[in-house]
Amino acid sequence: MGSRLTALFGIGLLVSVLTGCGSDPSDDSRPPAKPDELNVTVLQSDAGAPDKKVVSRGRISTKSGEILILEPDGSVSEMTLDSPEGQDAFALTEADLAMLNNNLQLDLSGVPDMGPVRSRGLTAQEQALAEFRARTKPMKLNLPVSFTADPKDFEGAVVKTWSSKKKSGDSLVEVTANLRGGVDADTAFAYATCALANWAGANGTPYARHIRTLRDKRNGKMIVGSVFTLSEKKPLGLTVMTTKDTLQECKSRGIPAA
After folding, report:
1. Which of 7, 127, 187, 225 is surrounded by the most beta carbons within 10 Å?
2. Proportion of the chain in helix, strand, coil states, percent, rounded to 5
């Protein structure tokens, strides 16, 4: 039967009768009882010409929800309002809306074209984070070009993990490096960094960021405690250690990784 568009005056009559809007507002008496049936006008497709619309009459039962539609050939179609056929009878398609627009002779030529929606730019916070990431540099061993490593300076390192309550999944580790007395601070930190890179590489962690380093002397030896965060994704920070690159630098400078 195809989708049908109920005429505007039919819908208006339906609302008016069912809500009692036609009664006098100044009258304190109860509104008149709703009728058993409501006459409506239905706009439907002509079976012989799908592009042509014809007007049919119909009745809706206000008690049972049944719809009776008089077809162009004189037959009567009966259906309930909440059935798929009943809902289809009052469904609106794009073609129905276009025909309604033509019938109402709406002139939309003066309505400006909104054009495509422009993509949203970066917020101030997003822009600041992008600029900060652009300043991030890989962490390098702070050793002079003339540096020559002495294997006797490095006496072992231990990596200890700490539990983290962060939802990001980053883990916290501390590297305790033991060195011979008299070793300078840059060499001591380079040793702790290389030990961390070796441990992170063995555990498949690609990035680390330095948090703090403490130095102490004990029994004539240098002890360094360096704390780092490890992460699967590149973290924010002015200097970020990349495990693979750091291991290569440690090897080229002769710093042991354990």
Report:
1. 187
2. 30, 30, 40
Q: Are residues 91 and 150 in the same domain?
A: no
Q: Which of 10-19, 31-40, 93-102, 191-200 has the highest mean pLDDT?
A: 191-200
Residues in CB range of 137: below 8 A, 6 or more apart: 238, 239, 240
Quick one: 73 and 157 in the same domain?
no
Considering its fold, how many domains does the chain have in total? 2
Which residue segment(s) compose the domain that 13 sits in?
5-23+31-104
| pLDDT range class, residue 120, cuts 50, 70, 90 | confident
Q: What residues are paired with 175 via a beta bridge?
A: 159, 226
Query: Among residues 3, 98, 86, 95, which one has the least CA distance to residue 43?
Result: 3
Q: Which two tokens stand for residue 198?
A: 């070796």
d(CA 89, CA 99): 16
Q: pLDDT class for 12, splitting at 50, 70, 90?
A: very low
Q: In the 8-state DSSP scheme, what is residue 173?
A: E
Q: What is the mean pLDDT of residues 140-151?
A: 92
d(CA 167, CA 45): 60
Q: Which long-range contacts (CB under 8 A, 24 or more apart) does 92-97 make?
A: 92/3, 92/5, 93/3, 96/3, 96/5, 96/43
